[in-house]
Amino acid sequence: MAERFARDWRSAGLPESTQVVLGFSEKLTRHPSEMSRSDVEGLRRVGFGDEDIHDIVQIAAFFNYINRVADALGIPPEPEMKPWARRDS
Amino acid sequence: MTEKLAPLLPWIRWIQDEEASGVLKQELDAAVGRAGKVYNIVRIMSLNPGALSAAMRLYLSTLRRRSERLGRPEREMIAVVVSQANHCHY
Fold first, then answer.
1. What percentage of chain A exceeds 90 in pLDDT?
2. Chain A partners of B67 at a C-beta cutoff of 8 Å?
3. Do A71 and B90 count as a contact with CB atoms less than 8 A apart?
4. Mind listing the pLDDT tens digit for each residue in A39-79?
């Protein structure tokens, strides 16, 4: 379900402010060097103050960090996670 | 396109839960207190308990915080979207 959400969040009918947060986080993940003041202003325009803006960046950056730790060290999935590929026998 | 297979074993060793002591044991206990179990992302950092502690503190001080406009669900959505953008299945 998380996978479907991550792919379709733009069409999930989320509030505008949430969509701006997620778009910001996605851009930071994919194109970090393209981040600009206007991205931050976009968050301000939908009502976030400096404390929230800072937290949004910290959370997005933290998951970028933890994703890299997981991918680089070959973390086995948790038992309850859907296997992300099946081995064909 | 080759589909990436989930690793069955991690690519570095980790300290077994029952052999943990000191800072590492505190972190494992804290992890159980928070989530009911130890997740592998905690275990994989067991070789550097200081780094593990720092990472957990950063997690708690950002994801586990709440504010009027940025609640827990929104914070968790950021995590999901970032992970998907990184193609990180874990």
1. 75
2. 51-52, 55
3. yes
4. 999 999 999 999 999 999 999 999 999 999 999 999 998 88
Nearest by CB: A26 against B39, B67, B81: B81
Is B85 in contact with A26 (Cβ distance < 8 A)? Answer: yes
| DSSP string computed for A34-86 | G--HHHHHHHHHTT--HHHHHHHHHHHHHHHHHHHHHHHHTPPPPTTSPPSSP
CB contact under 8 A, B58 and A58: yes
Q: What is the pLDDT of residue B58?
A: 96
Q: What pTM does this model have?
A: 0.89
Among partner residues A26, A51, A66, which is closest to B67 by beta-carbon distance? A51
What is the interface pTM, i.e. ipTM, of the complex?
A: 0.91
